Structures are given as structure tokens and as C-alpha cells.
Amino acid sequence: MRRNSKFLERLVLAALPLMAAAACGEAPLVDDAAILITRADKDLLDRHHRFLLKDHDIDYRVVTGNRLGDINTFAAARFKTDGVGARGRSGRGLLLVIDAAQDLVRLEVSSNLEGVYPDAFVGYLEQRQMVPFFRTERIADGILAATELIVARAQRAKANAGFAGEAWYLGSGGGGAKTRARIGTPAKVPGSSQQKRPGPRVAPGATPGETLAAYLRAMRDRNAARDLPIYTPETQAMLRRWVVTPAQMDSVARTYARCGTSETRLGPRGTQATIRYAVDKRQCAPFFFRKTAAGWALDLTMMQTLIRFGRDNSWHFAAGVPNPHAYAFTDWRIDSRGYPWPRER
What we know:
9 helices, 2 domains, five-stranded mixed sheet, Diaminopimelate Epimerase, Chain A, domain 1, alpha+beta, four-stranded antiparallel sheet
């Protein structure tokens, strides 16, 4: 697939075109004056922002430009003139500003959202999620990946979950709302996570559970090496085309730490395996494995093929896709949309 941000796969629905907003005298949700985003990605971002408004009453805008002056002053003024927050019921708004010429990015947060998105979160969002994409000039993907974190933080706030357990709150990201964007600047940090050599903790296991434990340790360590031996060769090739950010690895580690007990189910020939979680653990997608001479290897390409995520991050099977791991779910009922349920007795 072209992108690894799961948010791209969640919200593929129709929405009003940007021309409708212009006809009504409203500022567009995505104003790309610097021409950093393709029209297709611009429309996709527009749809995602409309869903954020619908689901969480957050009016989220993006503005790009060149030589905007002081980005802090510009963001504050544009926030006011564009009426960011006015499209919602509560006046809550976010404005992401990217100055390509000055290589800066800033997220402006309305005062009534500062409790949801404090400076430490904003710094983490920019530095650990957006900048890794910007380095490879994947601007739209970086914005979409940031939107994923924005939505997740909104969901936790709505559930009164607090900040405990979130990586940015544990000191993983810097504070502040302005960050060097580093557009088109490859990472050159010696010893970075993407240059780590695989060690014994990431070797394939004698059981699928051992391999999964090694993978989750790698995520906690922010080890984004594409050639870890716990991956199938196809997974390694896929990861070489991806941007894997620290925030994404933090999210995987944090999510599965809350999933509870797992269950391993072997395929009929003993060469495939599935690790699944309780059917009511909607955010805990299953993992798929293949047996190799070295041990059990994690097949993320199969997850990419079979699994999709809803707007609330609930996993489900992709519609109409053959499932070679169906053996692991025969005791569950899969509805017409691909969502799993306990089978009625």
C-alpha cells in the first residue's frame, strides 16, 4: 500500500467538496498556498477533518505557505480571521501552519482545548509523528499521521482517561507548539532507532507468543529497523517502503499493553498461526505468523491485507478479501461489515 498510516484506511466516505465551503464564504479546511499537497490528498484531508468535527466537535484547519513572517504571530492572526472553532458547537479549534520556506510547523490550539492538547502533547505530535514524514517530503502523510494522534487524544479525553500511560506525558516529546519541519531533510542521527542492529531480544521465537513478545519489546525500545529477523521477508520489504515514527511505535506498545490475555491458534498444517485477543477488545487487532526454519516470523503484510480500522479504532476484517487465517475465528460471528462478535449459543 502507498501509506502505512492506518487513519488513511479508516474514513473512506464521501464529503462536500472544497468549492461548497468557498461558495458559502467559509475558509477551506485545507489551504495549501505552498502547494505541498496533491489535490487527492487535499480532498482526503478535508474529509478527515470533517469527521473530526462531527465526532469530537473540533474544528481543525491546515494552512501552508512560504515566508509567512513570525509563524507564532501568523498562526494567532489566521486563527482569528478564519474563525477557527466557529464550525463547531463549542468553539473548539486547531490550526496547523506549515511554512515551507522557513521550514517551520506550528499547531495553534484554542484556549478551551489546552486541557486536551497541552504543549507537551503538541511538541510530541510535531517532533515524533510529523517530522519523520516531512523528512521524506510526505507532507500529507505526516498531517494524516498527526490527525490520528489528535483523534486518539480526543477519544481519551472524552472517556476521561487522563494522561497517564501516554508516551508524550512520560517525557518522550518536547514542549512548545513551534517545531523545525525539516522538510526533505533525511535523518542523520548516529545510532538512531532505524539504524539499530538486531540483538537477541528480537530473534524469532520457538512459539508465536515469543515472537510477538520480541516485537512488542522492539516497539517499546523504538527499534524501527526494517530487517529484524522476527519479520517475514515480505514484511521486511514492505517496511522498507514505510516511514515508521516514534509515535507510531509508542502507540503500538501502549495499545497492546492494555489488551490483556491473548490466545494462540495454529493453522491446520502447522505452518501458520494467529494470536488474537478477547472479542470485546476492539482496539486489539490479531497478529498473524508464518513458521520458518529460524522460528515463527511475524507477517505484517497479512495484517495490512486483512485488517481495517473503524473511526473509533475498532478493528474488523476487510470486506471481500480471502482470509487464510479464518481457522482462528470459527467460534466468532463475523458480521456483514467484517466486525467480530461472540457467537450466539
